[in-house]
Amino acid sequence: MLCEASYVLLEYARTAMFMWMFIEGLYLHNKITVTVFQHKFYYSVYHAVGWGVPVLMTAAWATATAMHYGSSRCWWGYNFTSYFWILEGPRFSVISLNMIFLLNIIRVLVTKLRQSNSSEALQVRKAVKAAIVLLPLLGITNVLNMIVAPLGRSAAEFGLWSYATHFLTSFQGFFIALLYCFLNGEVRTAVRKYVDNYLLHRSAGVRRGSGLSSVFLTTVTDLPRDHHGRARHLCSCLRGSQSPTHGRPYL
């Protein structure tokens, strides 16, 4: 039972990932190309599609797969059955739609670059850069996972397919974080500003504390001779000692 539940959770997470990739592609497409929707983003609908639709799809697939395997322990090779297309079909549709979104975004980008009178080489470079940046975000690299495993081919071909698919799947989140977070100019500026403010407040606190210590020491030094005992007792209390030096309190 634990094995089947693990497969269900895995496929739900993957399906939710594809749904959110579709939402991201739709959001970017409407933001860039369709001006009428620029100020109308239905986030409640996005959440329902991103988290709710995968529940229905995964439940339908899990029910069909459980009926297919019956009482067999675990669902070994479930991704090779025809029921797996309950999940793979919508995922492939998401990748196809995101590819259309990407091409349309590049078209709009090239049109705007031409209107800015930039050179042809610069236009191509910016368009290619935008496409490369959007590829992992829209999940188009996952198309390799939908290619049938070349089990009947040579070991080199199977190894190439296996390493490529596992590398792209495993590091997709890293590439997205790298491109959209760590290398993003706005994010780096915000982090740098936060660190500078923290260091500024910390140095100001250190200077304030050292200033109070110097004022206290100067005041103790300027006391008359008969008050030095009380001053020494006060210093010892500040250092943590609670008893007077000579066994009696100073009044």
Whole-number total of structural domains = 2
The CATH class name of the largest domain reads Mainly Alpha
Rg over CA atoms, rounded to whole Å, is 32 Å
CATH superfamily of the largest domain: Rhodopsin 7-helix transmembrane proteins
Shape: extended
- Strand residue content: under 5%
* CATH architecture title of the largest domain: Up-down Bundle
Characterize the main sheet.
none
- Report the mean per-residue pLDDT as an integer: 75
CATH topology (fold) name of the largest domain: Rhopdopsin 7-helix transmembrane proteins
Spans where pLDDT lies below 50 across 5 or more residues: 237-251
How many helical elements? 8
Oligomer: single chain
Give me the count of strands: 0
Distance between the termini: 78 Å
Helix share bin: over 70%
In sequence order, what are the helices and strands, one letter per element? HHHHHHHH
Global structural class: mainly alpha
Account of the 3D structure:
The chain is extended. Helix 1 packs parallel to helix 3 and helix 3 runs antiparallel to helix 4. It is mainly α and 251 residues long. It has eight helices and no strands. It is found in: Membrane. This is G-protein coupled receptors family 2 profile 2 domain-containing protein. One of its GO terms (molecular function) is G protein-coupled peptide receptor activity. Its main location: membrane.
